[in-house]
Design brief:
alpha/beta, TIM Barrel, two-stranded antiparallel sheet, 13 helices, 17% strand, globular
């Protein structure tokens, strides 16, 4: 919804219900901590996370970048005592999601524009961004969907960022986070997401299938993210309707701009293909379009642009 549009009664109802859901989530998180006095700590999705400084990963020999992020999320999930059945009831009672996949296909190469305050490898990108203002700029530039980081500890995001961005436009929003537990799927629906990310490298085959099925049961889109041919084979076993190829290897955070081109050849027809990361030039866009990609998910290039709306327009036009 644009700032100068009069909100409909239905939209206002959804807004109130969604923010009531966020308040209920916060109450649940406080229960995880066992008390209401949070002191210097704020509640995270599964438990507490420091508010004084977002973690920037040090590239130490033990474990990969992805290993350390996923381990932190799994540790938090293990400490989460919220009742999954109650969360499911709350998720199912939330306002209906917007259709994420159906938003694609309006342009030659659609843009999913990301709202990201920082990254583990590069530190601050736009720590003081206004998610609603940025989302509106993206919509003005022609983005078909939003991607919003909700991980605080490593990316500086929050469910409030997602809610604010989604409320500012009519665009569907992807919850960009590390899904490792069924409660993550319920939380995505409760906080107002229209789709979520399932990173194959972070999940077992059983988890991938279970979370993918659960997302669709709740009406959420599921972008199945892969980084190589083996992960693509695993991802295809759940019969996804969307595959995201991240050219940034989350194990090392290195970018391979030909990764998406190589994998495009073995992604079956009928699956919506999204390229992620490493998109910096017009040539990058031409190669991805020619390889058959339906869309690109772009974050750093947009959040650091002095004119995000124009940056989206130039992406759409292939004139980076």
């Amino acid at each position: 919804m644009k700032a100068d549009e009069e909100p409909t009664a239905e939209a206002m109802g959804d807004h109130v219900a969604r923010h009531a859901g966020l308040q209920q989530l916060a109450a649940g998180y406080r229960a995880v901590l066992g008390g209401g006095d949070l002191g210097d700590e704020a509640v995270g999705f599964h438990g507490h996370q420091k508010t004084r400084g977002v973690r920037q990963l040090r590239f130490e020999p033990m474990g990969t970048v992805l290993d350390r992020i996923v381990a932190a999320h799994r540790q938090a999930a293990a400490a989460d005592t919220r009742d999954a059945n109650l969360l499911r009831e709350q998720a199912e009672a939330s306002p209906p999601p917007r259709k994420f996949r159906k938003s694609m296909g309006r342009w030659g190469l659609d843009v999913i524009a990301e709202i990201k305050r920082r990254s583990p490898s590069k530190g601050d990108l736009a720590p003081d961004l206004d998610p609603a203002e940025l989302a509106q700029a993206y919509a003005d530039g022609g983005a078909v969907a939003l991607s919003v980081l909700t991980d605080w500890e490593f990316f500086g995001g929050s469910p409030e960022d997602l809610a604010a961005a989604r409320d500012a436009t009519n665009l569907p929003a992807l919850r960009k986070d590390f899904t490792v537990d069924e409660r993550d799927v319920y939380d995505a629906r409760i906080m107002g997401a229209d789709a979520l990310l399932l990173i194959v490298a972070a999940l077992s085959d059983e988890e991938l299938k279970r979370f993918h099925t659960l997302a669709h049961d709740l009406g959420l889109g599921a972008l199945v993210e892969v980084h190589d041919a083996d992960e693509l084979k695993r991802g295809l076993r759940v019969n996804p309707d969307m595959i995201g190829v991240n050219q940034r290897d989350l194990r090392t955070f290195e970018v391979d701009k030909l990764r998406a081109i190589r994998l495009a050849r073995v992604i079956p027809a009928g699956i919506l293909k999204v390229a992620e990361s490493g998109i910096e030039t017009a040539d990058d866009l031409v190669r991805l379009r020619d390889a058959g990609y339906d869309g690109v998910l772009v974050g750093e290039h947009l959040v650091t642009s002095p004119d995000p709306a124009e940056a989206v327009r130039r992406l759409r036009e292939g004139t980076l």
